[in-house]
């Protein structure tokens, strides 16, 4: 009995050592000639000493001593760096078989905790011990109902390691969690279970787990990174970007960034990418931490993980370092490592022909081949031969929309650029394109689940999808429209914005979901929801209620939103004619603008410029449409720099219109081309009519056809109309190309509508000339076009 009590004491102290290794040093043990066996195991310094004890005492080892041996062997492994190599030395040791047999024979005497602990360690150390693992799992299944939450969570992770996510046993665990959810108070254990059972549970159960997690979140310490990571992983598994939890987890990650290793940062970035959750602060601090790790990894295993995590967010100097190191070890990469690198290089807009060509011929998975074919297509002088075409054709029935889109984009690029090879291969590429169309349409028509469809649609882009599948995709969305809810409404809205496809049915459904389920909509997604209404210049039937809810939610959360998001929100609302005072005051203050400037440094050049343009356009909109807010105009210098760079020449249609306007108005001195208005709107043509509808000359400003006049800068905020003769009017004529309209119908988009509104405030009568009218059969002759211009300007067809 005494020895049993001592063994139990040492077992508990061993567990304490695993949790608090530094505290272990304070314990001092008296040496004695007959140390209990567990105490002898604890004093071992390597695996050989443990195995030596097992060999000498195998006839008398108890189940507790067997567990202790497994524990100590596992602790040795965790302390070493070359994990896989050291596992072999355990698994292949003759005495490990002895330990294996002892565990098999004594498992029915093990308590629940010991049983599952031995299973867990066996899986970690001996991947080939299938019979022992199977026996332990069966024994655990027999006891399942009596497991406490900690043992149950550890057992579920053992099943997950065997990929038994859809097994009846995992289903039984899900049922136990569901029945006992109200009494569970340990979020660490619950988070493990949530990840394990996430593939089996209903949407209602998912929501219950999310609510329970929110209620328990404050019970965990702020250093519990693994718990936070598992919560994010659960949200990824159920495809639910639940922002309140994501933000709380993000705070945990940020507060522990100095302690996060490469593996943790890499996983978090990958999870955020899948959930489309953007945290500027996390990316900024992760980038700094990862950049510090570049010199530490000179082996492919670690370096590839670092390359994939850092590459897409790296600055020019870091990218240079990463590519240099990659070049040195490219021959050492495995197939999977090469594919991971290729995926990251695609995001970095970089490429490596050697890697692509080395792995294309051996890949068999559609997503892998799609990545490689796309990468190959953007290489200079590359060519898809018959072997490559055959390889693609063979896997088409297995492809999802994302894979099909990748192939089509690549093939279109080859057909477009490969003019020299108008041979049999190009003919086969055209046939391949037809097959891609067929399989894409077939896949859409068979789809009967909106969430599964979204998984395939969310990253689609390019001409092929827009030209070949967009109409069918819109039809599928209409068919599944009732499945749009608070969980996916922002995602569907974001997709509609990208497609430029105007559908009142879908937009009305989005607005209805927001109004009906407003309490479940997080402010973080309001931008995605508002964006299509802004882009398409559309007011839904529930217009007032819809925008009231959106603005109310924003106002309650202004301090929690990213500065860049606030700028885009302000611009989107301004496009629609909404100017929330609280939002504008939050944006137009020195502290906010300084914070935004600090973030711009970390953005790619295109996004950096887009943010600055949106801020300028918002500043202009507020000054013109809400002067009562007294927000100053501070973009003179920015506009002058940009317009000096962008001063170009007129396109063919503009040249035609300029010549005809000169004839209609009475000479080139009666029309100005490419005019900058106050607040830097650029208009294609300007003319002035006196009170008798006669064009007034401007003076000498002759220009060469196709060239635009030089601009002389001055203060650009004075309202134009104040300088006109009495009764005169200033006219702005704008040629609107296809970018000003929706893809599927000639509906004017928000940006052009806002420009017209603001030009009218500046004193212009605005005449917009749509491309589909100017290029129509009705205006196919010069005389018809001249009449068209006269009617638009003077209100009559003949002078």
From TrEMBL:
GO terms for molecular function: kinase activity; RNA binding. GO terms for biological process: mitochondrial RNA processing; regulation of mitochondrial mRNA stability. SMART domains: RAP. Its main location: mitochondrion. It is found in: Mitochondrion. Residues 731-791 form the RAP domain. GO terms for cellular component: mitochondrial matrix; ribonucleoprotein granule. Keywords: Kinase, Mitochondrion, Transferase. InterPro entries: FAST_2 (IPR013579), FAST_kinase (IPR050870), FAST_Leu-rich (IPR010622), RAP (IPR013584). It comes from the Eukaryota. PANTHER family: FAST KINASE DOMAIN-CONTAINING PROTEIN 1, MITOCHONDRIAL, FAST LEU-RICH DOMAIN-CONTAINING. This is FAST kinase domain-containing protein 1, mitochondrial isoform X2. It comes from Zalophus californianus (California sealion). The gene is FASTKD1.
